[in-house]
Design goal:
Radius of gyration: 20 Å
Number of helices: 8
Helix content: 10-25%
Mean pLDDT: 91
Shape: globular
CATH class of the largest domain: Alpha Beta
């Protein structure tokens, strides 16, 4: 946990989380307590969100709670009968499954007061028949809350070929490079109409891959996955293992719902002290917030190290600067986000700030 260093955001704490994890309650290879212990061993993770396929069994069996310094929440990854439209649903007590259509479970999660995020929305691959793509098709809905803009396992699988598979198995983190441009463009377009929150997911399973001669190697061990794509939230609450876990989870879900979050690739460095906000004569706005546009509006970016910052307005790049504390004067209304890169590799993606 760290307190943002800029006084304008002094009331927010930053927490680092891992989203989209499978356990032995579906097709993962480790039980929830072991997964939580792995997260604890890394020392810089505050929460993990389990998303087993079409089940909340882990929640029913009482596996939510604090495990050392790591908070575990249990949601579900739902899909339809065609194994499409995968949906990460949290803060619900009712299960949905393939007997439901995508529209039914998207509407159902919303009606229950939960939150839902489209998983690997633009997945496409045809080179390995055993692992077909699982894209999203229900784009005319206005009741999903967010979208997984970066999925570690999906990117790894889409770039896998028979020629490079051994290199990618041996160097899994180096093969995670950037989100799909199609997904980023779709995300920006959706935000022109309403707030659609962006998160990052690891899609961790800890799969065993059989090699020649019967040998097996675990591809993307949980500990390796947890060192890749992370979602960081901003919360006004100080959350510690002394906090009731149900209260703490509500705070995390509230931050995700509000878009008070950003995504980072931990392979390139810690992003804990990143901040992005807008300020003008009316007030300030954090990621996910709206602020009336006024002359003199300024966007502020702070980073834990110098990097290249790309400012995006309404889906279009409008400025680039390099540094660790940057100011962007804004001359017109719009929805704004930033992308941060190191050595031309994407590192951080903010959620949007709406200047209206």
């Amino acid at each position: 946990m760290s307190l943002n260093k800029e006084n304008l955001l002094k009331d927010y704490f930053t927490y680092t989380g891992i989203i989209h994890i499978h356990s032995t309650f579906s097709d993962g290879t480790r039980p929830i307590p072991e997964i939580a212990q792995i997260a604890n061993e890394l020392g810089d993770i505050h929460f993990i969100l389990i998303t087993d396929h079409n089940t909340l069994q882990g929640k029913r069996d009482g596996f939510e709670g604090w495990y050392g310094n790591v908070l575990v929440g249990v949601g579900s990854e739902i899909n339809d009968r065609d194994d499409r439209n995968h949906y990460l649903a949290f803060d619900i007590d009712r299960e949905f499954g393939p007997e439901n259509t995508a529209e039914e479970y998207v509407n159902g999660v919303d009606a229950l007061g939960g939150i839902g995020f489209i998983a690997h929305p633009d997945e496409s691959r045809a080179h390995i028949r055993k692992y077909p793509p699982y894209p999203w098709t229900l784009w005319d809905s206005d009741r999903f809350h967010g979208i997984e803009i970066w999925n570690q396992m999906s990117e790894w699988m889409e770039g896998l070929t028979h020629l490079n598979k051994f290199w990618r198995i041996l160097h899994p983190r180096r093969s995670i490079v950037r989100p799909k441009e199609q997904t980023l463009q779709r995300w920006d377009a959706l935000n022109l109409k309403r707030r659609v929150v962006g998160i990052g997911g690891v899609d961790a399973h800890g799969f065993l891959h059989r090699l020649f001669g019967g040998f097996a190697i675990r591809v993307f061990r949980y500990k390796v996955s947890f060192r890749t794509i992370r979602t960081h939230i901003l919360s006004p609450a100080r959350l510690t293992p002394k906090t009731d876990y149900r209260v703490a989870l509500k705070e995390i879900y509230a931050a995700l719902r509000a878009g008070h979050c950003y995504i980072s690739h931990a392979y390139l460095g810690s992003a804990v002290n990143f901040s992005f906000w807008a300020k003008n004569s009316i007030g300030i706005a954090a990621m996910g917030d709206s602020l009336p546009f006024r002359n003199g509006t300024e966007l502020v970016v702070q980073l834990p190290q110098k990097a290249r910052v790309t400012l995006v307005r309404n889906g279009q790049t409008i400025a680039r600067k390099k540094g660790d504390e940057l100011y962007f004067p804004i001359s017109e209304a719009g929805i704004y986000r930033v992308e941060i890169s190191i050595d031309n590799r994407p590192w951080i993606y903010s959620n949007h700030i709406r200047l209206l």
